[in-house]
Design a protein that fits this description.
There is one protein chain. With about 240 residues, the protein is of the alpha/beta class. The protein contains seven helices and ten strands. The chain has a domain of about 70 residues. About 30% of the residues lie in helices and about 25% in strands. The chain starts with a strand and ends in a 26-residue tail after the last strand.
């Protein structure tokens, strides 16, 4: 299948510190990917690059086989196809409906279409009937689902999630896992970061393992999970020496 993201020779630095160094990575449309690894592994940096919020210091990032434009209307159009939900999403004061309609208004959608997407998104995340509830008065798990509904209402081609399970109790985590599994089955491309290296197996997703900003392993969905020791062949070719933060 044609990759939706192709990364080649990617390097991202912040000052003298190399945060990410990936020689080659391809992500296929319609699949769920879990980026795993400890803090500082490069998971959030990779998500920021894929969301087109940042640009690599070197290397090539292609979307649907086309090189990524540096700027302009073409890049903005691509950004509209990608939605990133942050680990601690900010919710507006007021109702759940206001939060979800806000981005739709910015896209110029009429009220009828806003309402249609609002109802669909809330139903998708299991919050039907929550449109008039105060967003900030909800539980942490419910707020996380409101943020997900807000992202889904934009009808993204690619959904990115930064540590979506962090801070959730077991019931909220199970609810969110069911939602993500349903979205995967519907063919949405999902890329999420997590500290839980068993999540990919539970969601029938591909696992991409990162450490110190480098790709150290990949495990396709539905394959036996194993975690080999690091070897030279799994590390970035010709990496810059990592500097301590």
């Amino acid at each position: 299948m044609k990759p939706i993201f192709s990364l080649s020779g990617i390097e991202k630095r912040y000052g003298s510190r190399t945060a990410l160094c990936i020689e080659r990575l391809q992500l296929v449309a319609g699949r769920l990917y879990c980026l795993t690894g400890p803090n500082g592994a490069g998971k959030s940096t990779l998500l920021s690059l894929l969301a087109l919020l940042e640009s690599p210091c070197r290397g090539k990032l292609a979307i649907d086989g086309r090189p990524l434009p540096d700027r302009g209307a073409s890049r903005r159009q691509l950004q509209r196809q990608i939605t990133l939900v942050h680990q601690s999403p900010f919710l507006l004061s007021g109702s759940v409906g206001r939060n979800i309609r806000y981005g739709l208004k910015l896209r110029g959608l009429n009220r009828r279409e806003q309402n249609r997407r609002l109802l669909w998104a809330l139903q998708t995340v299991g919050l039907a009937g929550f449109a008039h509830r105060r967003a900030r008065a909800l539980s942490g798990g419910e707020q996380r689902r409101v943020a997900l509904a807000r992202a889904l209402a934009l009808k993204p081609k690619i959904l990115l999630l930064d540590e979506p399970m962090t801070g959730l109790d077991s019931r909220s985590s199970a609810n969110l896992e069911r939602i993500l599994d349903n979205l995967r089955r519907q063919g949405l491309t999902i890329i999420l970061s997590t500290h839980d290296d068993t999540l990919a197996a539970r969601l029938a997703g591909d696992e991409i393992r990162l450490r110190d900003g480098r790709l150290v392993g990949e495990t396709p969905a539905n394959s036996e999970r194993s975690y080999p020791a690091l070897t030279e062949s799994t590390l970035c070719l010709n990496p810059l020496k990592m500097q301590e933060a």
